[in-house]
């Protein structure tokens, strides 16, 4: 393994690059070093370079120039996702590993191209889906065998609309070119967490979606029933466009020998309640575990996984791979098509 930190070239120096990725990279100086930047509006890349102690000579005028620079070992791209396919294609051609933001792409066709392209190259390509790295996943997965066979689940992530949300002000979010707009922007996170906990893919979905807020630019709430692999059935509810209401997050997994109740609502420690018993009228055996996620949740672990895969030049180590992320967008795609057909069950497409 190389002892030098990986030199990171940032492509897109907007809110999330500045507020989250840069501080994480700066907190890991033995693994990463911010070394180059390109942004459509150059002044913002220059401002970012100052913040990141990037040499001015490494503020580039184009993606091509950044990719051609031999002082860049790894690309960190944070762009509106309609540019993901083009950016990944160029990075792979230049032989540079890349981490690029979720959702995987703006359309399922582009996502399919990305899977095809990344299947065919040994270069690590990571979709930045930090919800796959939540502590809750391993904690729940180690308890799952105790509740027997999974019968069903119910997942709910709902919250109020915040006018102060700075992400909301970005024009590409308000006029989305990516399917689902806010529903895929945030929904893929929820689906990553849910499917990774269950260890199951969705087969079909029957959904109704609706636009509540004009600012969302597209439907922004989703209520659905789901058929998952192995005959498991469930519900998936997502939306942050409501009036004043507590931000609620919960997953209940119902099994033949018990249940797991995961509460990830805002403003309190997260908790996992394990309730055992084949029937309800036996003495309860209940354990409750409370824990905190990292702040910001999942991102440090995501970058540790990125470092391992890139430094070992082994794409099989990438946890948030394009194939997995295709599935999250495919679920949103199926949900939107289902809603257009009045809630008819729609098969979730494969890459
Ligand atoms: N994982 C997460 O939890 C999370 C959270 C937030 C965001 N994200 C992702 O991060 C990415 C960036 O989001 P953000 O919130 O940081 O948005 P943002 O502040 O609007 O940043 C977008 C960046 O892309 C650039 N850009 C916009 N249109 C472009 C174009 N046509 N060609 C080239 N560059 C263009 C912008 O350049 P200008 O300066 O010229 O406008 C800006 O620097 C998105 O993919 C988003 O989904 C992920």
Automatic annotation (TrEMBL):
InterPro entries xref list: Gfo/Idh/MocA-like_OxRdtase_C, Gfo/Idh/MocA-like_OxRdtase_N, NAD(P)-bd_dom_sf
GO cellular component: a single term: cytoplasm
Residue ranges of domain Gfo/Idh/MocA-like oxidoreductase N-terminal in the record: 6-120
GO MF annotation terms: nucleotide binding; oxidoreductase activity
SUPFAM superfamilies on file: Glyceraldehyde-3-phosphate dehydrogenase-like, C-terminal domain, NAD(P)-binding Rossmann-fold domains
Sequence ranges assigned to domain Gfo/Idh/MocA-like oxidoreductase C-terminal in this UniProt record: 146-343
Protein name: Gfo/Idh/MocA-like oxidoreductase N-terminal domain-containing protein
């Amino acid at each position: 393994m190389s002892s030098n930190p990986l030199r990171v070239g940032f492509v897109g120096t907007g809110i999330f690059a500045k507020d989250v990725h840069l501080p994480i990279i700066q907190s890991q100086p033995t693994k990463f070093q911010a070394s180059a930047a390109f942004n459509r509006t150059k002044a913002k890349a220059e401002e970012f370079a100052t913040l990141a102690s990037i040499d001015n000579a490494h503020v580039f005028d184009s993606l091509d120039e950044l990719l051609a620079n031999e002082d860049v070992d790894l690309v960190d791209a944070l762009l509106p996702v309609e540019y993901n396919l083009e950016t990944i294609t160029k990075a792979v051609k230049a032989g540079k590993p890349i981490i690029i933001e979720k959702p995987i792409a703006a359309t399922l066709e582009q996502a399919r191209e990305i899977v095809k392209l990344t299947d065919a190259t040994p270069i690590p390509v990571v979709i930045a889906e930090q919800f796959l790295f939540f502590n809750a996943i391993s904690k729940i997965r180690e308890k799952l065998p105790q509740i027997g066979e999974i019968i069903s689940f119910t997942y709910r992530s709902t919250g109020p609309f915040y006018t102060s949300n700075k992400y909301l002000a970005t024009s590409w979010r308000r006029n989305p070119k990516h399917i689902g707009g806010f529903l895929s922007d945030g929904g893929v996170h929820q689906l990553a967490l849910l499917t990774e906990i269950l260890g199951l893919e969705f087969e079909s979905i029957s959904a109704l979606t609706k636009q509540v807020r004009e600012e969302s630019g597209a439907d922004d709430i989703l209520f659905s029933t789901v058929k998952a692999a192995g005959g498991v059935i469930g519900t998936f509810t997502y939306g942050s466009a409501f009036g004043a209401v507590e931000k609620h997050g919960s997953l209940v997994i119902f099994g033949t020998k018990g249940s797991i109740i995961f509460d990830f609502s805002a403003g309190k420690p997260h908790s996992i309640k394990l309730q055992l018993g084949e029937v309800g009228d036996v003495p309860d055996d209940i354990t409750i575990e409370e824990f905190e996620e990292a702040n910001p949740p999942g991102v440090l672990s995501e970058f540790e996984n990125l470092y391992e895969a890139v430094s070992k030049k082994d794409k099989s180590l990438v946890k948030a791979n394009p194939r997995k992320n295709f599935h999250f967008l495919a679920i949103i795609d199926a949900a939107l098509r289902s809603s257009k057909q009045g809630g008819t069950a729609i098969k979730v497409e494969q890459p």
